[in-house]
Amino acid sequence: MSSSFAAGPSLALAQPPLADPSAAEKGSLAAVGLGLLAVLVAAFDADAARARLSLYAALALLSGGTLAWSWLKFGRRPAGVQHHNLWRRGSTSRGAVAWVTAVVLTGFYVLLYWFSAPNDQGNFGLLNGLVHALDPFSQALRAHPADQWFLYGTFYTLAILLMGGRALWKYRHSRYQLIRTGSVMFFQLGFAFLLPGILQFFQQPEFYFTYFWPLKYDYLLPGTVDYLVQNGQALGVFMVFWGAVMALVATPVLTYFYGKRWYCSWVCGCGGLAETAGDPYRQLSDKSRAAWRWEVRLIYPILGLILLVTVAMWLNYVLHGAILGSVADGLYRFYGFVIGAVFSGVVGVGFYPLMGSRVWCRFGCPMAAYLGLLQKHFSRFRISTNGGQCISCGNCSNVCEMGIDVKQYAQRGEPIIRASCVGCGLCSTACPRGVLNLENGPREGRYQGSSFIHADSLRILS
C-alpha cells in the first residue's frame, strides 16, 4: 500500500521519471484509440451500412481495449489501492490530457442537448450517423428507431460497464467495493437501460424505476402523472405509485437505516457513472472550506427550487392556471435548462477531469441534498474512526470524491457524519491501518468517538 501526497506536484523534481507502459498496455491503449477513431468515422460516413459497421467495430475495440488495459494495469499487480504517480500524470492531475478530455466530453454533451434534435427528415445533425447506426439495435430492443437519447443511453451504459470492469480489477481486494460496483452496473444495465426499452417494445410508457423525485423532477409533476395514467393504464398507475412511494416513503426509511449510500453509491445512474468512469478523477475534488461553502450555497437552494417548481406546477394544474398562469411553466423550463441540462449534463460529466467525479452530486443534485439532510440529522449511518491507529498518510482524503478531508477526522478519532458523504467506502478501502469503518449502529452515541462500536455495525475492511 503506497501513501498518497496531496502536494504531489511540488515533489515531482525529487522523484524518478514515470515508467513507460508495457508493450501490452500500449497495445490495449492503441485499441482504445482506434475505437475512438472508428466512432468519428461512423459519425461522418454518409453510407449507413459502413457507418453501422464502423460503430460496431468501434464498440468492440473500445470494449476489448479497455478491459484488457484494466487487467494489465491492475489485475497483474498486488491488490490494494495504489496512488503511484497519481499527481504526476497529465490525465489525472488537470494536465493537457485532462483538459482535452474535458473539452471533448463537454462538446459531446452540448451537441447532445442542443444540436441533435431531429428535423422533419429525421436528421440528428452532427450525431445523425451515430444515431442511425444504432437503428437495428433500437428496433430489436424498443421497436422504435434510435434517437439521440438512445445513443446517449447506449454510450452511458457502456461506460459504466467497461469502467466498472476496471473498478472490479482495481478494488478486487475489497468485498464491499466488488458488491457495490456490481450493484451500480446491474441497476444501470437492467433498470435504467433494458427495462425502459422493453416497456416501449410493448407500447408502454418509458419509465426509469431507479430514478425518483426530486432527481427525476418531472416524475411527480401533473403532466407526467397524467401521461403515465392515460397511456399506461394499470401499469401507469403503478408507475406513479412507485415514484411517489420511493420518493416520499422508502427514501426516508432506507436513509435512516443505511444513509444515502443505499442510493447514491448502489443504485443511482449518476453516481454509477461517477464511481466507474469518474474513478480516475476522484482525487481532484476540492477539499477546501471555500469549496464546502459553495456546496452549501448551491445544492440546498436547488432543492428548494425544485420544491417550488413542483408546488407551483400542481397549483397551476388544480387552479387551471387561474392564478399563476405561465409563471409555473416558466419556472419548469428554467429549471430544466439550467439545472437539468447545463448543470447535471454538460458540467456534471464534462468537468470530471478538472473538478473530480462528483461535481453534480456534490454541488447540484437535489436528491443528494434531500438524502443528505436525512443522513445528517436522522440516519443511523456514520463512519467511525480510530485516531490512535491513524498514521496521517492522507490516502483517505485523497480518494474522497465528495471533498471531505477525512484525514482530519481520523487523526482526532471523530466519527464522520456529513450530509455530503455518499458512503462509497473508498476511504476505508484505501486506509492501510483499518482506521475507518462504515457503521449502521443505533443513533444513540452516533457522535461519540471510535470507542463506541455496536454489534450491529457494518465493518468495511480494506
UniProtKB/TrEMBL annotation:
Q: Which domain of life is it from?
A: Bacteria
Kindly list the GO CC terms recorded for this protein: plasma membrane
Give every 4Fe-4S ferredoxin-type domain span: 381-409, 413-441
Q: Where, by residue number, does the polypeptide cross the bilayer?
A: 53-72, 96-115, 149-169, 181-202, 234-257, 298-319, 331-354
Its keywords, alphabetically, are: 4Fe-4S, Electron transport, Iron, Iron-sulfur, Membrane, Metal-binding, Transmembrane, Transmembrane helix, Transport
Q: What is this protein called?
A: 4Fe-4S binding protein
Question: Is Endoplasmic reticulum found in the keyword set?
Answer: no
Q: Which GO terms describe its molecular function?
A: 4 iron, 4 sulfur cluster binding; metal ion binding
